[in-house]
Amino acid sequence: MTRNNTSGSGGNAVEVRGLVKHFGATKALDGVDLDVREGTVLGVLGPNGAGKTTLVRALSTLIRPDAGTARVAGYDVLTQPRQLRRVIGLTGQYASVDEKLSGFENLYMIGRLLDLSRKDARRRAEAMLERFSLTEAAKRPAMQYSGGMRRRLDLAASMIGRPAVLYLDEPTTGLDPRTRNEVWEEVQRMVAEGATVLLTTQYMEEAEQLAQELTVIDRGRVIAGGRVDELKAKVGGRTLVIRPADRGELPRMVGALAQAGLDGVTGATADEAEGTVSVPLLSDEQLTAVIGLLGERGFAVADISTHLPSLDEVFLAVTGQKASAPADRNDTDALQEVAA
Amino acid sequence: MSTATATAGAPAKAATGEGRIGPRANLRHIGALARRNMLQIKQDPESMFDAVLMPVIFILLFTYVFGGSIGGKGNEREYLNYLVPGLMAMMGMNISMAVGTGINDDFKKGVMDRFRTMPIARSSVLVAKIVVEVGRMLIATSILLGMGFALGLTVSTSVLHLLAAVALSMVFGASLMWIFILLGLTMKTPQAVQGIAMIVLMPLQFGSSIFAPTTNMPGWLEAFTEYNPLSNLADAARHLIRGGPVAHSVWMVLAWSVAITAVTAPLAVSRFRRKT
After folding, report:
1. Is A43 left (phi over 0), alpha (psi -120 to 50) or beta?
2. What is the pLDDT of residues B114-146, one digit of tens each?
3. What distance in Å separates the CA atoms of residue A107 and residue A122, rounded to the nearest whole number?
4. B chain contacts of residue A101, beta-carbon cutoff 8 Å
């Protein structure tokens, strides 16, 4: 995993202070503050309708915030939108490529709109197609692409202008796991090359994979923030779930784990209803140790898996309450769509 | 990779005016976007049906349905000579109507968001659309004239006059497109755009000198046709092709074109800019 936490120039590529955007009575953004350090990935984690997309749209000059300030790469969102557009790239939840145009034509057009010469635009388009493994599909219209190919084309389009700051608005929503991994790899590569990324997501797993810092938002407000490992410590890391072949073994298994004296493996609990034992994990070494122990003691195991905390669990841990009800969120979405 | 490294702490690049888009860059953007619109047509050739088939259908329909009654039975050619210049005016209107529905449809696509986050003049998206639609209009007009010549249309002035008539209808058609772009940006669905457009278009098209001389119309309608720009355009094209006084009608058409563009183009661009 690429984590250049160390690019400690200290400069912030994105600075947001007190950003407010209301759609009618709905406060899509209700005073958001956040910073993204140059060369890092900030994950903005929140449920549907939390204001993530509104935030990205405000930072990419698509909507005007009602109050507050935001600077991106030194440019003010409100007073320097033209300059700002030169240094950003945006990949939204919905692919923003022209479906009727081929992959090549889409990228060539973006290159020309970014003032590349014909030759440079062609070269750059070809290079990006190559990089995103789309060379074979270069001449096919984008409407014939699979969801993953389309998302990759979208990322390629955002990268044509070598943006200093890249916004990725739920880049893997609706993608299958394999395609999701491809997108993650690309994002990690871009960051390794020096891009600053603001990533919105609904998945703790995605934030953990890509981001160094995390801002949790709900109902347009920041409810928690900090380094990913700090938040993880707060929320708890992975949980190992073991299903013994024989339910009767549950108490014996819990006992064995408790007595083993493995560092940290004290919280093993049995779930009688599910017929499973849960063990909170703090490290990969622990995982190995627990599995080794099970083998040593001769337990017959039917199933074994690890789970990351879900968004709901994150919310529960950082706020002590559940994420806002989905009904409220639908209202916000509807309003955002009307405004769109 | 030459990633820009400007930070919030170092706004050195933020010199005033740096974000301005020069005329050459603007032309390049319009060219790239016009290319996009043309590639869309290539991908979806059916979208040319209106430009290709409408002139053929209209000329056949009107010449043979009305030609006999208006020009006299067996004398359809005379009506043809009256009709074709009028249809040139009508083509412009019908093609430009399609711009409104097209823009409306385009807005539902994510690619507009991309354009709006790019360092280009927002008007260039609209201007590119107009450039391509004027091209479509030119194709429709060429087919109309081709059909007309095949059926016996004669130019009693000169080729230059004929070209002037074509150019005039392009200018007027382009100005109409701003109205429909404005409608397309205002209405919620392409269907609504089409509905409104039909209500406005029908009286304008038939309450004009396109299909029949206005002298036999009741006085109030004749007065209306006097100020109907479609009448002006039909008369101008007719006199340019068939001979007759052109100055008044040509000036009227140019005045209408300038007035329509001056009012609706800024409105459309600002509407486009505000649309989120």
Report:
1. beta
2. 898 899 988 898 899 999 999 999 999 999 999
3. 8
4. 36, 39-40, 43
Tokens of A244: 């013994």
State whether A101 and B6 contact (CB < 8 Å).
Answer: no
pTM above 0.80, yes or no: no
Contact A93, A154 (CB under 8 A): no
The number of C-beta contacts closer than 8 angstroms across A and B is 141
In chain B, the percentage of residues whose pLDDT exceeds 90 is 41
Query: What percentage of chain B reaches a pLDDT higher than 70?
Result: 92
Which neighbouring-strand residues pair with A277?
A242, A270
Give the amino acid at A184.
W
- Residue B89 and residue B205: Cα distance in Å, rounded? 9
Tell me the two tokens of residue B138. 């030119």
Distances (CA, A) of B109 to A148, B32, B139, B276: 18, 18, 27, 12
The alpha-carbon gap from B12 to the nearest alpha carbon of chain A, in Å, equals 8
Centre a 10 Å sphere on the Cβ of residue B163 and count the other Cβ atoms it contains. Answer: 11
Locate the domains of chain B by residue range.
23-274
Residues 6+ apart with CB under 8 A from B53: none
CB-CB under 8 Å, B40 with A100: yes
- How far CA B252 is from CA of A50, A233, B104, in Å, comes to 56, 77, 31
Per-residue tokens: A133: 């493994």
Interface residue of A98, A122, A193 to substitute, partner B, most B CBs within 10 Å: A98
Long-range contacts of A261-269 (CB under 8 A, 24+ apart): A262/A286, A262/A289, A262/A290, A262/A293, A265/A289, A265/A290
> Do the beta carbons of residue B207 and residue B221 sit within 8 Å?
yes
- Write down the ipTM of this complex: 0.81
Nearest one of A270, A315, A265 to A290, comparing CA atoms: A265
Q: Which residue of chain A is at minimal alpha-carbon distance from B125?
A: A113
**Confidence band for A311, pLDDT divided at 50, 70 and 90:** low
**Token pair for B104:** 């409306």
How confident is residue A296, by pLDDT bands cut at 50, 70 and 90?
confident
Distance from C-alpha of A60 to C-alpha of A57, rounded to nearest angstrom: 5
Q: What is the pLDDT of residues B87-97, one digit of tens each?
A: 998 888 888 88
Q: Does A336 touch chain B (CB under 8 A)?
A: no
Contact yes or no for A109 and B32 at CB 8 A: yes
Rounded average pLDDT over A258-278: 76
Cβ-based burial of A10 (10 A; exposed 0-12, middle 13-18, buried ≥19): exposed
Give the domains, in start order, of chain A with CATH numbers: 12-234 (3.40.50.300), 238-307 (3.30.70.100)
Using one digit for the tens of pLDDT, what is the confidence trace for B157-192?
999 999 999 999 999 999 999 998 998 888 888 788
